[in-house]
Specification:
The chain is an all-alpha fold. The chain contains 4 helices and no strands.
Length: 134
């Protein structure tokens, strides 16, 4: 993780320097703004990785130059084998985006649908707590 946050923080500094050079050479406002936003995005990712690395506090196998492949083995988390929830999330997001072009009435319908489908997607594998059982 150490090399990752160094890479993203270096990219952030690079984007900021290039944005200043671009502006001095006579670049347009949109390109300058895009480079500043790219620098901010790379900085946010780099800060998140740096913060996560500090919180973990251990040397990860990716940072150990003498690590073996088996050092990174273990449980990586739970991944859904199948889910239909991305489909309604995508359709509702498309409808909300098209609603901005076609008419506000479609956005007004699509936003609650998007919220409900995101809640369904996030809570798909939540188990209800049985009351009265210990």
């Amino acid at each position: 993780m150490k090399s990752n946050y160094r890479l993203f923080l270096g990219l952030s500094i690079f984007y900021f320097i290039i944005a200043v050079v671009y502006q001095q050479v006579g670049g347009e406002v949109l390109g300058f703004t895009g480079m500043l936003l790219s620098g901010c995005l790379a900085g946010m990712v780099g800060f998140y990785m740096w913060f996560t690395n500090r919180r973990i506090g251990a040397v990860l196998p990716e940072d150990n130059l003498t690590a073996e492949i088996s050092d990174g083995a273990g449980d990586l988390g739970f991944y859904s084998p199948h889910s239909w929830w991305p489909l309604p999330v995508a359709l509702a997001a498309c409808a909300a985006g098209l609603g901005l072009v076609l008419g506000w009435w479609l956005t007004i319908i699509a936003i609650p649908t998007l919220i409900i489908s995101i809640i369904g997607f996030v809570t798909e594998y939540e188990k209800p707590v049985a009351s009265g059982s210990h």
